[in-house]
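Issue 218. Parser rejects a valid record. Input:
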Amino acid sequence: DLVSLSVYDSPEFSRTVRVAADGTIRLPMLKAPVHLQGLFPSEAEIAIAEALKSENLLIDPFVTISVAEYHSRPINVIGAVRSPIIFQAIGTVTLLDALARAGGVADSAGPMIIVTKANGSPDTQSVQRIPVKQLIEGIDAELNIKLTGGEEVRIPEVARIIVQGNVARPGVYPVLEPLTNNTVTSALAQAGGLAQFAEHTAYIYRTDEQGVKHTIEVPLWEILKRKKPDVGLQARDTLYVP
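Output the parser choked on:
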C-alpha cells in the first residue's frame, strides 16, 4: 500500500511512503522501521507516534495517515464470469459487487460460488460455498457476504455432456444432479429424442484423466426396448447417434 503520512508541525516527517514487502515503513531519523502490517490507519498513526516519541524525536507528535493506494487487498474473481478481474477492496465490497465488476455470471456457470481466503497463512484457508441462484434472487441476504481483500471468488463452469448426431436437438447439455441420473436415455430426452433414421447402435466418446480417448459402444435400441440396462454418462462425455 501507498500511505500518505502527515506529522503536525513537522514537515520533515510528512511524506508519502510505500509499505515494504515485510509490512514496515522507514522514516528519516528513525533507527528502526515501523511495523504497520495488519493495522488500520488509526492504529498505524499510534504506532508511528510511539516510534517518534520512543527515539526522543518529538515530545507529543500528532500523526495522521491516509491510504493513497491499496495494493494489499486484492479480490480475484475467476471462472464462469463474463470478465474475470482482480481489483482492490476499497470501502465496502459485497459478493454481488464483485460479480458486477466481473460483468456478471456467465451462462456456463455452475450452481455454486466458491469463496476462499487464507486464514493467517497460505496453508490454511476458509472456504464458503454460496448457491448462485439464491444469491442473485436475494432469497437470503446473508449470502451476500462482505469481502475485505485477499479472497478468491471462483464460479466453476457447470459440467456438461455433448449429444451429437441423429437427435432432434444436438447440443451441449448440463450434467444432472445427482450424477446417477446421467444416462444415455436421459441425455436423449434432453436432446428431444431420436430423429428419423437413427441407427440401432450409438457411441460414447470419453477421455480419461490421462488424456486417452475411449469409444464405448451402446446398444441403443435394446436399451430403449428395455432389453438391456441403461448406460451411465460422465461429465465431458460425447454421445453420438449415427
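Fixed in the parser; the record now loads. Residues 32 and 125 are 33 Å apart (CA to CA).
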